TrEMBL record:
Keywords: Aminopeptidase, Hydrolase, Metal-binding, Metalloprotease, Protease, Zinc. It is an enzyme of class 3 (hydrolase). Belongs to the peptidase M18 family. Gene3D superfamilies: Aminopeptidase i, Domain 2, Zn peptidases. GO terms for biological process: proteolysis. GO terms for molecular function: aminopeptidase activity; metallopeptidase activity; zinc ion binding. CDD domains: M18_DAP. This is M18 family aminopeptidase. GO terms for cellular component: cytoplasm. Its cofactor is Zn(2+).
Amino acid sequence: MSNPIAQSLCDFIAESPTPFHATQNLLKLFTDAGFEVLHEGQDWSIEPHSSYAVTRNDSSIIAFRTGADLTSGIQMIGAHTDSPCLKIKPNPEIRTHGYLQLGVEVYGGALLHPWLDRDLSIAGRVSGLNDNGEIVSELIDFKRPIAIIPNLAIHLDREANSSRVINPQNNLPLILTQQEDTSFEQLLLQQCRHGVVKILEYELSCYDTQVPQLTGLHDEFVSAARLDNLLSSYIGARALVDTESDQAALYISTDHEEVGSSSAYGANGPFLKSVLERITNNPTELTQTLSRSLLLSCDNAHGIHPNYSDKHDKNHGPILNAGPVIKINSNQRYASTSVSSAKFQARCAEAGVPLQKFVTRSDMACGSTIGPITSSQIGIETLDVGAPQWGMHSIRETAGTQDCEYLYKAACAFLR
């Protein structure tokens, strides 16, 4: 099954082990397409029929085209750059029985068992001093397996398949090496090649080095880390780059969604509102613009697992490769309304894109997205959609190859 969107998604994910790397690669995608880079600390001169991009904290990004007239409304696509993972602690070194280990903290709602027995690497942002004594930051990526969290043999825990519980403090420290003279700080300095000569702080994540790839007998599936939510982040960005229209459009992908979005860089922060205030002329114009705008909150949905089909409402179990999913929740865990859903369905029908609907079982708790947060922050009509996937929040997730194409076509139709 040939699918260039799915294959290019794999390439993007492979080069984006952290939100910092994802944002860097998204920015390059936009600048290669002619988007002008803006900086929040500088004056902006926004022109009609022009395209711009701006980042915050190196981990969140907004890109937009002004079209003919912003006040006619802006079609927006929103996603997030972060994924559940293990993050290195500030003072991580643990020396036990001749092994150098690194302590980690669980970020977000990660499935922990899949992190065991994986070939792990480390990537992220390092901040420190350069040769002139100035504070600088740079991204690093070891790009090879340097750590592992071994499982405990079943001979030492006969109940492992029925009752093993992972204690994050005791059972997740990485094993790095047996060399006694190895210092983690020295290892980091060896990776710093763009200015940092003295490390003051870092934000580092572990990741699985197994490459993303198409799987299944006929390449029906995409298997990769961080599909939630780099799939939506990449496809939404590609759609904005690949569409030309007089319709104003905006793309945003923010950090910290997996931990509630409450940061200066998350969807519950001021980033999007600040940009919108700067590209409109006054509060009245902004309100008028938002009243004519629509946000497509793109985040993956739970596809029905054939081995656990009882975990779904039998009338709302999305199938992989059967089209994007409209996510609905009467308690506003998703922001979809009948009006926003109808508008999107009409666009998808014109583009020949099939759609599905997801409602969680009435006796189970429902997750959420940036949709309700952004909608309540700026007062924009919103729809929650996403490609169906398996294994959400695992170290390796699975989505449908054809759904990548479907979501891309839907996003392009939405932005035109």
